[in-house]
Specification:
alpha/beta; 32% helix; five-stranded mixed β-barrel; homodimer; four-stranded mixed β-sheet
Chain lengths: 352, 352
């Protein structure tokens, strides 16, 4: 899934270039490319399907030139993740009714690649045995209010780390998040799901029948030219819904596999700071030649070979791109959305 | 005079592009071009002579395409202002032994153009009457420790605002500067001098005979091809000396004309802040699209059309160019010189 838009990493992320398309760590690979690489070790490349908004078609082709055209599903409208997952399930089932697949966001970071692959391997085994929906959950290490939490209940027999899902809670308040973490019952939701295509379709049929019936057509509508016409017609009419709400939180057969993957959804500059290597003063410098004097716990990011000198800042974001520069306290990062609106109003779309 | 180098406005000023060559206020004119414009209203263009280091020859020609080649004097070595003034005096005297001229820095700003022209007009009148060296002095409005101060003594008969110079003091300490300002006897030295060419030569003969004798050759050495050969030989051998120290502070016939010209030597970011229009929070924004949130008394400067967002800073410099960005408290600006050295060591000359 790589259709997300977002401005929380402005000026690095832009409407025309959300964060999945950015080389965040200056490694020469964008988050999308890193995600595909991560999956490619387990799944043959010809089985990788990308779903994105049609606005990003060119960017996707540019960043993944090896991916064949018919493996890029283009959403004609933004409808959140539920319709995307349902479309993918039908698209896959039309080719192999027994197929299982993993759905994953393209803009997250996972540091423990081996553990990740092991989790996927065991996850596939689990969902291929029966009609099951499986999430990956991370040990909740801090009361982060930007995350989605999965409450686990009964442990599955013969599995130390797979549990039934009791409930899924989106972005709790601070107090609630602290209770979640203390309870030991909650995991961070990585937004990574494993399932068989037919389990997905069946779950939608049960829990979101309106949406399910729109997509419930003969397999030939999910092939070749017909697919585009069909989707262009049906997609804009469907509701916008996250897959967590649509099926995972409601289904009786939803499970979570707990694994510590060194995961971050990179949802904010703060999250990026948390996961990045720091110097002795807690400063993170991304992709730039920087000289920091008397700085503490800052994050300094630039494009290219620019030299950045910062003196006397604490807990600040300095993010510099070609046509925009942001200097802002990390604690004020929730305001970036409003800032971006202000910029659009004052200076136009080219900067947002 | 436009041979000065300096890094105090880094990253805007660079070794290859000192501040006289920069469009500081985003008006489309560099400080040099503004200075020439200011003088052109009083002095015919064919009488304007520019003295600069040969390193800047191309930049000068580019910025002043109307100036004829023979009016650009190229210093083969940096020797401060005394040899520059002495050379200019000989160069001018070789063409007109009775000529008077004004010597002025090319990287200052003067806001009261009419008062400036009136001061020059009266200054020329004063130095043409007799063998006199005349400085322009500004009312010392604050104990600025970066300036040169002129102590005035006896007022000249029939002149309300021309005084004999008692002494010239370079960059006093804070305490001394406060005494200067309180005394009412000291003026800021604008570094602008009026004199006859032969008065300059005569003053050098008296006070700096070693240097004077090097330049004391027949007028034909100050014309055409011969001049370049002569200067290339003699200039590197001469001492490096400021004109204040060489003659103005020692000569018995040195005077100062007091005038309030809205002058600034733009020697520091702070000086630029002081002279620039501010918004209600005391912020100065130069040449950029800026959005400041909770900022006070900052100076934000960028090249081109870049958008700059700053949140929560007080008394800061934010100076952004193509390949370098500086974020630094205004009070730490004396350290910019060291910062530039650090950058040269770490990242090489291309950034300094």
């Amino acid at each position: 899934m790589c259709g997300g838009a977002g401005t929380r990493f402005w000026p690095f992320s832009r409407e025309s270039r959300p964060k999945q398309f950015i080389d965040f760590f200056g490694t020469g690979q964008t988050l999308l490319q890193m995600t595909v690489d991560r999956v490619r070790r387990l799944v043959p490349e010809e089985n990788i399907i990308l779903i994105t908004n049609e606005q990003y078609a060119d960017t996707v082709r540019e960043q993944l030139p090896g991916l064949s055209q018919e493996h890029i599903l283009l959403e004609p409208a933004r409808r959140d993740t539920a319709p995307a997952v349902l479309w993918a399930a039908h698209h896959i089932a039309a080719r192999n009714p027994e197929a299982s697949f993993v759905t994953l966001p393209s803009d997250h970071v996972i540091l423990r690649e081996t553990d990740f692959q092991e989790a996927l391997r065991r996850g596939f085994e689990f969902v291929e045995q029966a009609d099951r929906l499986l999430a990956l959950g991370l040990p909740a290490k801090a009361p982060n209010t930007a995350y989605s939490y999965i409450q686990k209940e009964d442990k599955m027999p013969r599995h130390d780390d797979i549990f039934r899902i009791k409930t899924i809670a989106e972005k709790p308040g601070r107090e609630m998040a602290e209770i979640f973490v203390r309870s030991g019952e909650f995991l961070w939701n990585a937004g990574i799901y494993l399932w068989k295509a037919k389990s997905v379709i069946s779950a939608f049929n049960k829990d979101v029948p309106d949406m399910a019936s729109r997509f419930d057509v003969e397999p030939e509508f999910y092939r070749g030219e017909a697919e585009k016409d069909f989707i262009d017609d049906v997609y804009p009419k469907t509701s916008s819904l996250p897959v967590e709400y649509a099926i995972m939180d409601r289904a009786a057969n939803s499970y979570v596999l707990e694994a510590d993957l060194g995961w971050s959804d990179l949802s904010t500059w703060n999250a990026l700071h948390a996961i990045s290597p720091k110097n002795k003063d807690g400063n993170v410098t991304q992709n730039c030649r920087s000289l920091l004097y008397d700085c503490k716990d800052c994050i300094v990011a630039a494009e290219g070979e620019k030299v950045i000198v910062v003196s006397g800042l604490k807990d600040y974001i300095v993010a510099d791109t070609d046509n925009a520069l942001l200097i802002c306290p990390i604690e004020a990062e929730q305001r970036i959305r409003n800032i971006v609106n202000d910029i659009r109003e004052r200076f136009g779309n080219e900067f947002t």
